[in-house]
C-alpha cells in the first residue's frame, strides 16, 4: 500500500526544526510524508514507501520483482511532486539538484532514484534538473551504519561540479528522500553557496524522520 498523498507540502517550522539537529530557523525545508525511525517496513505505508524507494541495485539483481516496488515508489513520489509544485515555478523559478547518495557513480550500488523522481514529476515540462553534487568516495549509508560520517567528513568528500549550462534559476531546490539530522542538506547547501554566492536555497524531502 502506498501512502496517501496529502493536500499540501508540509514545512519544517518552529515546532519541528528541533527534530533535525543541523537545521536552523532560517532553513526553508519542505516534506511530504513522515517516516518512523526504527519501526521497520510494515509499520506504515510511508515506511514501506521509503524502504521500497531505497531498494539497492544488487537487491534488484537478486530478485527482479523488487524493481516493480521501487518503480512504484518513484512514480508515486513523482505524482505527489507534480501535484504540489506548479509548472510556472518549475519552468521559470527553480533549479532542482538531487542530494547525492552514499555511493560514487561508478559504484555498482550507485542509485539515481532522486533524479528519476524529478524526471518523472516534471515530465514534459522545461525543468532545470542538475545532477551536479557528487561525492568522491563511497561510504556506508547512514541508515545502515552505526558509525556515521560527521559533518566535516561528509563536506570533505562532497563536491559541486562546475556547470556548463546557463546560470541557475533564482531558487535552488535541494532534493533528498529522507530528512533525518539535516546533515546532508547542510553540506549540500554549503557547497552550492560556495559556487553560487547569494543563491536562495530550499530543501525538498519526500519524508522526514520522526522518533518516539
Provide an overview of this structure.
The protein has 212 residues and is of the alpha/beta class. The chain has one domain: Rossmann fold (3-Layer(aba) Sandwich). It is built from seven helices and eight strands, in the order E-E-H-H-H-H-E-H-E-E-H-E-E-H-E. The protein has helices at residues 45-53, 57-62, 66-84, 87-92, 113-121, 151-156, 183-195, and strands spanning 10-11, 28-36, 94-98, 128-129, 133-135, 158-160, 171-179, 200-210. It has a six-stranded mixed beta sheet. A two-stranded antiparallel ribbon has the order 5-6. It starts with 9 loop residues before the first strand and ends with a strand. The model has no long low-confidence stretch (mean pLDDT 94).
Entry keywords:
212 residues; alpha/beta; Rossmann fold; six-stranded mixed sheet; two-stranded antiparallel ribbon; 7 helices; 8 strands; 21% strand
Explain the layout of strands and helices:
Layout: E1 10-11, E2 28-36, H1 45-53, H2 57-62, H3 66-84, H4 87-92, E3 94-98, H5 113-121, E4 128-129, E5 133-135, H6 151-156, E6 158-160, E7 171-179, H7 183-195, E8 200-210
Parallel strand pairs: 2-8, 3-4, 3-7, 7-8
Antiparallel strand pairs: 1-2, 5-6
Helix pairs in contact: 1-3, 3-5
